[in-house]
Amino acid sequence: MLARMIWMALLGGLVLLVAGGELLVRGASSLAARLGLSSLVIGLTVVAFGTSAPEVAVSIGAQLEGSGALAVGNVVGSNTFNVLFILGASALLAPLVVSRQVLRVDVPIMVCASLLGLVMALDGRYSRVDGIMMLVVFVGYLVFTVREGRRQASPNDPQVPIKPAWLSVTLVLAGLALLVLGARFFVSGAVDLARLLGMSETVIGLTIVAAGTSLPEVATSLMAAWRGERDIAVGNVVGSNIFNLLLILGLSSQFGVGALEVPPSVLHFDLPVMLAAAIALAPLAMARGFLARWEGVFFLLAYVVYLAYLVLDSKGHDALPRFNVAMLEFVFPLVVVTLGVLLVQGLRRTSGERA
After folding, report:
1. Per-position b or e across 141-179, b if 16+ CB within 10 A of its CB
2. Domains in the chain and their CATH numbers?
3. Closest among 250, 224, 234, 191 to 102, alpha carbons compared
4. Dist. CA 160–CA 269, nearest whole Å
5. What single string gives the DSSP state of each residue in 48-98?
6. CA distances for 87 relative to 5, 109, 179, angstroms
7. Most confident of 57-71, 80-94, 140-154, 337-351
8. For residue 116, what pLDDT is reported?
9. C-beta of residue 23 within 8 angstroms of C-beta of residue 178
10. What is the pTM of this model?
11. CA distance 112 to 117
């Protein structure tokens, strides 16, 4: 009986998330045209904020209940999931064109925000002062993005059909409501399932909850890629990661009786993996100005390897030492060489465009 209820919550949540992602993309695309903003800017702001709503609710709620490990794991796991799984799956569906603004501005900001999140966690917590600093940086990023989007908007930019304002707003609000409701059902079922399997709170946050609260980004980015709104697909992920780090960690650290504690395993492994995933996006996109299908496969395989490590480590499996050796002696050097070659190609491509 309990297992049936869990699976019903998971399936119902997925249905609501897909429907919410479709409505949100339709409404946001129309608002972009009406407000004179590009689809990219809408993806980096309105859509990113909306799809990050489940992470906000889960992380703040977890901190209020004294489960700081779940709150931090949710944000860190969501960001890793966003880059490796969502961009990987979206690129597999349709090659993703990455605009110059994303490459030159937003990806570096995402990398810097990831680095900031790692540095601030070195003392094992996010204090209220750390959170205020993150929120200040977040407001500055938001103001800069909107101003640049309006300044760079061109009448010649392709625009989607403009719906009536009331209809666009209704679609966005309805989409957000379905996303939040769907995420709530899914996370509730996923957490119950994870507890039945005996997983720790930190691992639950990094995997089940992170994937569950990121499903709005999954639905929105896949729908956007399918409908040809590829700026929204990429901008949604990059913007959501920036929102997660600066807004959610900043807000979560202001709640509860103490600081937002960072588990040692997250500090020493998961935060560096999150930073590495953010850094890896740059050379892959720079090489040709888009993410190809094979690069999507690369990201998806990287996420599977990350999950495999978390599961083996949480169970103390005998295969973990051999897994670590294979990663350090074969996989890691191969990935570094591949990214290095792509980075050189990207720099040559950029230099050729300037010439």
Report:
1. bbeebeebbeeebeeeeebbeebeeeebeebbebbbbbb
2. 2-354 (1.20.1420.30)
3. 234
4. 42
5. HHHHTHHHHHHHHHHHHTT-HHHHHHHHHHHHHHIIIIIHHHHHHHS-EE-
6. 31, 17, 19
7. 80-94
8. 93
9. yes
10. 0.78
11. 9
